[in-house]
Structure formats: structure tokens, C-alpha cells
Design a protein that fits this description.
Elements: H1 12-18, H2 32-37, H3 58-65, H4 68-73, H5 86-91, H6 93-110, H7 117-128, H8 133-140, H9 146-158, E1 162-166, E2 172-176, H10 179-191, H11 193-196, H12 205-221
Antiparallel strand pairs: 1-2
Length: about 230
């Protein structure tokens, strides 16, 4: 059952009566519904086991495609019909930026949240390269300062929009989870492509490639990917 989060909870009792006959896979793009399904008052409690499905692993895409750079971008399947090569991200920047905001807005709607301007600005700042919560706090100018920015970044990471990469210090390196989405949102942050329609001069492809390769190596060797700002 795809997009399970859109099934009204009033039908969950009906789903529960089917168990344990057969096998039901409830697929969805919302973390919020997971908390509801496994809530102690849920009629579905004990009938499902959670399985997180991330964007595609770089090594899996690379094995099929054979070209390192497009493989970084195609880890996020929704861009495949629109982006045949890295240059398409630049040439189609405006259209892709509009689609990206719509997709993120849908994630927020499914989490029963509103994509406010503050959250949107935080995402764009991270895509632009603001990775420290202290820097994001300064750029946003929130009343709550660092605490508010840290809370926003943490929520975005829990929703799967961002990811928090440990560093060699106390800070986490925040990045947009999808390399393709990160590049698309970077064009919006730096060039306001959705409003101005301008073609960006360049994209930080190297940044996304290095983190993707680092993620692959960490997985291969059974390690933890970390970021060292002192060595960049």
C-alpha cells in the first residue's frame, strides 16, 4: 500500500483485522506516520516492523551507470527523467528549483507541519554551504538564537531533508541529504533562479562528490563518516 500516510486512521482497525493473514507492505514518505503507527494506542502496534529506505547507495548506481558524476546525481530517483547529465542541473535550474520546493512542502504537509519561510531559509542556507548551527543561527537572526537554529536543523534531519554528519569536534556538519536536491537548492540560494530565471554560473559538484564518496567508503569499511573542517 503506497503512500500509507494518506490512509485515514479510521481505517486502521480494518487493516488490523487482516493480520496475520498475508503480507502487507505499507510504504510512505513521511516519518510522522511511523510515530503514529508505533504509538501505544495504535491498533497497528505490533503488526508492522519499520524499515527505512534511503536514497540509492552511490555504489549501486555507479555499478549500473558506470559514470561517476551522473551517479552522484541519480542517487535520488525523481531527478532521473529530468537530468541526463550534470549540465542539465544548471540549464534546468529554475524548473527544478520550483519542483524541489514543492516536494519539500509535501514532506512538511505529510508531517502535519507548514513549510514556513524560516524553515525554507534554513534549508537554503545549508544548501549554500552554511553547515554550522551557529552560522545558520546568525544568518537567520532568530530570537532564540543558537537554540532555535539547532532545533530547526535537528527537525529537518529527523524528517530526512537534511543529514547531520559528525565532525572531529562537537559540531555536526549539516548537509542536504540528497546530492541532487542540494545542488538544485544551491542554485536557488545563490542565484534566486525561481524568481529571476537566471542560469547559474557553476555548481558545487565537487562538494557533493566528496561527501558521496566518503559515505561509500565509510559503508564499505564499516566506519563512520566524519567531517574535518581543518583539513578542507
Amino acid at each position: 500500500m503506497d503512500e500509507f500516510q494518506r490512509l485515514p486512521p479510521k481505517y486502521w482497525d480494518l487493516v488490523a483485522t487482516w493480520a496475520p493473514s498475508g503480507l502487507l507492505i505499507a510504504a510512505g514518505s513521511s516519518y510522522g506516520v511511523v510515530h503514529k503507527v508505533f504509538d501505544k494506542s495504535s491498533p497497528l502496534l505490533g503488526l508492522f516492523a519499520p524499515l527505512h529506505i534511503d536514497i540509492m547507495a552511490y555504489e549501486d548506481v555507479l555499478a549500473q551507470v558506470g559514470d561517476p558524476l551522473p551517479s552522484v546525481i541519480w542517487r535520488d530517483p525523481w531527478v532521473i527523467p529530468h537530468v541526463q547529465k550534470a549540465e542539465d542541473l544548471r540549464l534546468k535550474a529554475r524548473d527544478l528549483a520550483l519542483v524541489a520546493r514543492g516536494l519539500i512542502g509535501e514532506v512538511f504537509a505529510e508531517e502535519e507541519r507548514e513549510l514556513t519561510e524560516t524553515y525554507w531559509r534554513a534549508i537554503l542556507l545549508v544548501a549554500e554551504g552554511y553547515w554550522k548551527s551557529t552560522d545558520v543561527a546568525g544568518a537567520l537572526g532568530l530570537k532564540g538564537g543558537l537554540a532555535s537554529a539547532s532545533s530547526i536543523l535537528s527537525k529537518l534531519a529527523k524528517m530526512g531533508v537534511l543529514r547531520a554528519i559528525p565532525t572531529l569536534g562537537r559540531e555536526s556538519y549539516y548537509a542536504v541529504r540528497s546530492p541532487a536536491l542540494s545542488l538544485i537548492l544551491c542554485t536557488e540560494a545563490k542565484y534566486s533562479v525561481s524568481d529571476l530565471g537566471a542560469e547559474p554560473a557553476e555548481l558545487p559538484l565537487g562538494r557533493e562528490a566528496q561527501f558521496t564518496i566518503g559515505e561509500m567508503l565509510a559503508s564499505y569499511f564499516g566506519g563512520v563518516q566524519r567531517y574535518s573542517p581543518e583539513r578542507t
